[in-house]
Amino acid sequence: MPVISKRSSQLGTENAFVVLAEVGALQRQGKDILSFCIGMPDFPTPLNIQDAGIKAIQSGKHGYTPSAGIPELRKAAATYLNETRGLNYDAADVVVAAGAKPFIMYSILATTDYGEGHEVIYPNPGFPIYESQIKVNGAVPVPLHLRESRGFNFDPEELESKLNDKTRLLILNSPQNPTGGIVSRAELDNIVAILDRYPNVWVFSDEIYSQLCFEEPFISIASFPSMTERTIVGDGCSKTWAMTGWRLGFAASKALAPIFTKWVTNTESCASHITQWAGVEALTGDQTGADMMRSKFMERRDLIVDLLNKVPGITCLNPGGAFYVWPNVTEACEMIGAKDSEEFRQRLLLESGVAVLADIHFGRRVPDDGQHIRFSYAASNDDIIEGVDRLDVFIRKNTR
User: Fold this and answer.
1) Do residues 332 and 315 make contact, with C-beta atoms less than 8 angstroms apart?
2) 15 pLDDT above the threshold of 80
3) What is the pTM of this model?
4) What whole-number distance in Å separates Cα of residue 183 and Cα of residue 126?
5) Going from the N-terminus, what domains does the chain have, and what CATH number goes with each?
6) Residue 170: partners with Cβ closer than 8 Å, 6 or more residues away
7) Least enclosed by CB within 10 Å: which of 29, 148, 233, 316?
């Protein structure tokens, strides 16, 4: 058999999909599984957006589009970013892709050179594709630890200690996956003050959960005058408008939009023509559906945090956004004799039919920060109540 490249063999994955496959296999065997492992709204795409997609199909929007996206969507995305972040983008500054995820790769490719030792700082725990794409594209991954004691934010002094002449890109994510934490204005002030001393470092600001903030308004680092030109704002339609399967994302950068356009041409050619028209409606149309989903997610967050904090051996901070909680299960692992969060997760799935993810699915475990699991509360109230009840019974039954 011909040799497979080292690059391909080292390519990481997104473990939410791995666990989802495990769940599917168990369900096909007739097992009763409650899944909290995938970051996907459980609501249907709002009807006005569905109708826009149907209209696009029926009106012949079937062909290629410009690689950067249809002008109507680029303009709508620029207006949306300007209105929600206080920015000043033109349509030409925005590029559209098949989901927000490609812009992680495109940003790394646009700011680092393969094998030159260029470093990319990324949050840990964090979306696993960050580290995977840094490695496979020949840059050096530098994890920046998010600590529970800081509300799942990083220490600005630790950030400064990792910055050097080799640093080319800093990845920020707020609200965060997997912790639900938010980078506050005060914390952004500190980060910007540090980055002002390193003017050659780009920032990729992953803002896919920006419209799911519950206590405080979302603030983009791009809104700071010294950061606007060197920040890449990444966003999309998946989370806010329950469009995960439609695959539609966009990024804004005056300097890098032409580079991103070339990368889209070289990879996917363009995002789905049909989906782009649905995206125009998502960004410019009636927001009743999006507002309802945000309200429901906030209700579910309050429910699951309250329930988890009543389970023996578990503590759970109240996250400021997204639709994830990141409970600490260190004591629970000790109580049932599980060596770590991954063994805890596996036993919980096989013995109690509750599917969650472990902290190691989101990067190396943060030193001295304990064991954690992730619940996605993109699930009904009834499922949340039953799932946490099964968790409670599982711990009490197995406590030594």
Assistant:
1) no
2) no
3) 0.95
4) 14
5) 6-44+289-398 (3.90.1150.10), 47-284 (3.40.640.10)
6) 120, 121, 122, 159, 195, 201, 202, 203, 204
7) 29
